[in-house]
From TrEMBL:
Domain of life: Archaea
Protein name: Transporter of the drug/metabolite transporter (DMT) superfamily protein
Database matches in InterPro entries: EamA_dom (IPR000620), EmrE-like (IPR037185)
The species this protein was found in: Haloferax mucosum ATCC BAA-1512
Keyword Membrane among UniProt keywords: yes
Transmembrane segments: 12-35, 41-60, 96-120, 127-145, 157-175, 187-208, 220-242, 249-269, 275-292
Residue span, EamA domain: 16-143, 158-292
Keywords: Membrane, Transmembrane, Transmembrane helix
GO cellular component: membrane
Presence of keyword Membrane: yes
Length: 293
């Protein structure tokens, strides 16, 4: 793994803290935008790719040229999985609360553990098993509670289900790219991933008949904000931090995203989470912590 992609005066822990704050804004920006979900996802990925392209061309042109066919196929598979993640998660925010959606989509470490056991022959220990069981219990509590305690969301069960699909897709993205990042530097890798992701989402957008143009200036600023904040300073910096910090530290730190997003939704969207959502979300986060630590 290359440790020189973004070396500088910022410490890895400081960079990780900034990244968690940046990704916490994602759900808020998505909610503020009135564009179709696929359009939001497309422009977020496209603009993030554009922002990284100059760095890739200037500093990593040779690395891009020598990516093996095997790694290119794997990175492309990660791009398809990332497209599925964005498409399902962005749509989930149209149907359920920010607190529920972000907490459930952040459960991807659980599915990474299951996928690593099923496809990579990695052993699942007792602690991981307990953590998965606890988190799944929290997911059930969050979803079932919506049947009895209205959260104000239009279709919370659908939204929660889409968020879980987003978590599974994110796990596939992580598992697919895990080995590639040990051989390919960060910027060349994410440029390939984002490019494939953008093409897949563009195809889905065209099939769905969503317009790609004609949006007011406010929407274009939100699209750019999604790319600069959650995209560039969020997930890209998190990928960089994995070269400097233990994966367990990064995984556990990501639990700050649901908390940050819920707090931002409270103040910026006036969205007050119900008690069952808070309880269920806490159980989910505890389960993820057990699994990741």
């Amino acid at each position: 793994m290359s440790t020189t992609d973004f070396d500088g005066p910022v410490s890895p822990l400081t960079g990780l803290a900034i990244a968690i704050l940046a990704v916490s804004t994602s759900a808020i920006l998505v909610r503020w935008s009135a564009a179709p979900s696929l359009v939001k996802a497309f422009y977020r990925v496209l603009f993030t790719g554009f922002l990284l392209a100059p760095i890739a061309i200037v500093r990593h042109r040779d690395a891009l040229a020598v990516i093996s066919r095997r790694d290119l196929v794997a990175a492309s598979g990660a791009g398809v999985a990332l497209a599925a993640h964005f498409a399902s998660w962005f749509e989930s925010l149209n149907h359920t609360t920010v607190a529920a959606s972000v907490t459930l989509v952040q459960a991807q470490p659980l599915f990474v553990a299951v996928g690593a056991w099923a496809f990579l022959d990695e052993r699942v220990g007792r602690r991981t098993t307990v953590g998965i069981a606890v988190a799944l219990g929290g997911m059930v509590l969050m979803s079932v509670s919506d049947l009895f305690t209205p959260s104000g969301a239009p279709r919370p069960l659908l939204g929660n289900g889409l968020a879980v699909v987003g978590a599974v897709a994110a796990a596939a993205y992580v598992l697919t790219g895990r080995s590639v990042r040990s051989r390919v530097a960060l910027v060349p890798y994410v440029v390939v991933v984002y490019s494939v992701c953008a093409v897949v989402i563009l195809a889905l957008t065209l099939v769905n008949g969503d317009p790609l143009t004609g949006y007011p200036a406010r929407e274009w600023l939100l699209f750019l904000g999604m790319a600069v904040g959650p995209g560039l300073f969020g997930h890209t910096v998190i990928n960089w931090s994995l070269a400097h910090l233990e994966s367990s530290v990064v995984s556990v730190s990501l639990l700050g995203e649901p908390v940050g997003s819920t707090i931002l939704a409270l103040f910026l969207l006036g969205e007050i989470p119900t008690l069952p959502t808070i309880l269920g979300g806490t159980v989910v986060l505890f389960g993820i912590y057990i699994t990741s630590s």
